[in-house]
Structure formats: C-alpha cells, structure tokens
Amino acid sequence: MKKLLPIYILIFVLISIEIKAQDSKIKSWDYNINIEFKDTTLYINLHLKAFKTENWTKNFFLFNRYIKIDKALLNNKPLNYIRSNDTLYFEHSNSDKINFFISYKIPCSLYESSKIIKIFGDSIFAYPALLDSNQVFCERYSKFYPVIYDNFTNYKVKITIPKTYEIYVEHKANEKILSKNNIISTYIFFDEDFRFFITKANIFQSEKIVQNKETYCKFYFLPKDKRLLSIKNNTPKYITDLNQIDSLYNVIANRSALAVKWYQTNLWYKNIDTLPFIETGIFGLAVNMRAFIIFDRSLMNMEAIDNYALSHEIGHFWIGYNVKYLSKGFYFLSESINEYINLLFYESWAGNQAYENAIKDKINLRFSNKPFFTVSFEQVLNQKNGDLNFELIYNKGVVFAYKFCKLIGKEKFLKIIRETYQKTDNYITLTDFENSIKKNGCLKEYLQLYEMKL
C-alpha cells in the first residue's frame, strides 16, 4: 500500500479469501462496532462483551491520540482509565466478565481535522481518517477503533451513510437496508483490520474496461480537465487534450491487465472475474481492498506507471493477505516480498537493465529523503507497526529478497513463494517461510542473509 509518495507505502494488502481468525486469549466474544457518517463526521459506538482468561491484560486497547473519547463504560459503570499515546490503561474488574462500551467521533472535514491535527502535532500516529472534500478512508492500522493486542476474532460492523454517498468495503455486506435517507450496511468480519472507503455517489466520470482472459479490469476515473503526464527536472508536464488523456488511460489499463496475467502465470491462478480500480482524490492513497483497488490520481501518470506503482497493489492479491499480524517478519513477508515480486514483473516488460537499476535505486534509497545507510536482515525482520521505518521495508527488505533470489535462482525462489503463500487455512508466519526454504534445500543460502549488511 502506498500512502506516502513518492514511495508507495502500505496499505496492506488483501483479497477475499477465508482464513482462520488468530487465537484469542479472551473467549465468548460479542463485539459490535456501529459507525454513522453524518455531516462530515464519523460517529462510532463500540460494544464488547467477553469472558476473561488467566492471561488477559488491562492495557489491551490500541487507540489513536487524535480521538477524543466521549463516553466509556466497563460493566455498566464509568471506566477509569489512563491514556498514553495509543494505549488505554485501566484497572482490573473483579468480575470475570467484560462488558465494555465506548463512543467517540472523528471529524472528516478538512477544517475540523486540521484543527485537531494541530493540537496533536507531536503524535507519531497518523490521523485515523484519510480524506478530501468528498471522500473518507479509514483503516484499523491508523487506529480508528480499538483492538485487543494480538487477539482477533469475529466482530460485527454496522455502517450508516446518507443515500448521496457510496461505501466500499473489502467484503460484501451481510445485510443492506435502505431507509428514507440512509443506507445501512452490516458486515461480519474476522480479520484484524476493517477498512472502508466512503465517497460521494455518481462522481466518477470515465470508465475503462480491459479484458484479460477471464478477468475484466474496470477503471473508474474522477473527472479532470487535465492530467499529470510526467515530471522532468522537477517540472510537472500536464495534458489537457482529451485524446491524450484517453491514451494515458489506455496505458494504465493495459499495463494493469498485463500485471494480472503475469501473476496468474508466474505465481498461481486465482479466479478473479472483475477487478475494479477506483480513483480517489485522497493524496498518496493506494491500497488493495481484496475485491478492488483504490488508487490516488497522483499515480495516474507515466512516471508512476513506469515505476511499477500500481502493479504493487495488484501483487497483494497473491502476496501478503494472510501474513500473521504483529508476528516477526510481518512487513518483510507482506510488503518487501510483494515489492520484489513486483520488480520481477517489471523486469518482464522493462528489461533486465531497468530491473537491475531499480534494485540499485533501492540499495541507495534514491527515492528517499533520508541519507544512505546500511542495515542487517535482522533489523528488517524486526520492523513493527508504530515504529516502522518504511525505507527498511520498501528498499532494504526488497534488496534482501533480491539477494536470496540471486543465491538460489528465480525458479526455486518462486516455488518457495508459492508453497508459503498459497496456504488458505491459516495465517502464515516467518516460520512457514523458513520451513519452505528448508524443504527446498536452501537454508544455507537463507542464513547468508543474516551475515549481510545492505
């Protein structure tokens, strides 16, 4: 996922496949999140019921510092708590039952959000919503709602939006109700992350469809009188001619269809009937949402296309959706590996020299504002959310994957990737990746990565 340009940065990743929820240390959940989008504000009520176990913890809620808590109850009494950055601390209850309720709101207007951001300008966390005047994007990784550390299980989310808006979520709604003024959608979710995208209805102007065998790539473009074509010597070049803009759309659509074909051929076949690409005005946002891809209009230019930006998100249909969150090596397995395989696709159409140059750029951090530095493989594996160095993941981590591929050969490397990531019955970990490496007789080469400084 690419959230900070010019390097495309996370967004994680994921396609619609059923995988088991991670083991929970709290049992008998009844977890409900109610969200209402009204007057450019998200109003959120969260209700959690559970039984404690021996190893439950009292500091188990992740929270964004930007969120002001309006009401908090524990077992129907006011909750006494202390906040420190993103963590909510509170005293143990004498009861072995947890009945937790909390309500808060997230302003989604540029004016109101900027005022709040100014207050918490020293926060290491992003504002919990990405937005422009007509669109809102939320994800748990920005901590717009609390989750229990390391514990995920089924929960219900109900979202209410005005009829003048549309909502895009990773899975189809389990129930959808149309009232006089609103659309009410209910989702039963089991992953650690619930992401949604709200946009004004009927704002997409252009549509482009490209068929690649069984897959239809459908692009929904925002209306725009001019498009950024390229940036030469720090000077942007725009086009306004409709034929030129349409030609740019064709390149974007055809290159994306080519990426789908390459992944189907070189990794494994996935049944994807229709793959929607939805353009957003939210700057820097590009994210794979399982059933569709959201991309920022700043990526709709030849430089971004030639730098394999959009195909990174396409790769997440194969790589990263089922990596165990918070486990060691999470970002290496979900992002670094995906970006390296994206470079293999890049090599297939740009040529070996362009591919090698891209690797050199990543070694030298050419797209980074930070100075060149060297790191160990262990440093890459230990990257965690909240203290994440993106250069390590999207540059150095990719080069470690490249070095491993050079040591064992591309055919064996892709075989290990297929054996690791094709699992659909559970979350994968670094141990699964290493077991596949051992199975293919490549442990000696893998251990060499720990001796390198890149």
Based on the model shown, name its key terms.
single chain; alpha+beta; Immunoglobulin-like; Neutral Protease, domain 2; 3 domains; five-stranded mixed β-sheet; 22 strands; 28% strand; globular
Task: Provide a descriptive summary of the structure in words.
With 454 residues, this protein is α+β, with helices and mostly antiparallel strands. It folds into 3 domains: 164 residues, tricorn interacting facor f3 domain (Immunoglobulin-like); 110 residues, Neutral Protease Domain 2 (Neutral Protease, domain 2, Orthogonal Bundle); 122 residues, Neutral Protease, domain 2, CATH 1.10.390. The chain is 29% helix and 28% strand. It has 11 helices and 22 strands. The strands form 5 sheets. It has an 8-stranded mixed β-sheet. A hairpin with a 2-residue loop joins β16 and β17. The radius of gyration is 22 Å and the shape is globular. The two termini are 23 Å apart.
